Amino acid sequence: MICQSWDLYEHFGAARAGEGGVLTGWSVRTPPTVSARRRRPAVLLLPGGGYEHVSAREAEPVALRFLARGWVPFALRYSVAPARFPVALREAAWAMRLIRREADGLEVDPGAVAAVGFSAGGHLCGLLATLFDAPEVRDIAPGPCLRPDGVGLCYPVAVSWGETHAPSFENLCGGDRALAERLSLDRLVRPDMPPVCLWTTRDDQSVPCRNTLVLAQALDRAGVDFALRVYRHGRHGLATADVQALPAGEAGAGASFSPELRRWPEEMMDFFAAGGLVVRDGAD
Question: Which fold is adopted by the domain 2-270?
Answer without folding.
Answer: Rossmann fold (3.40.50)
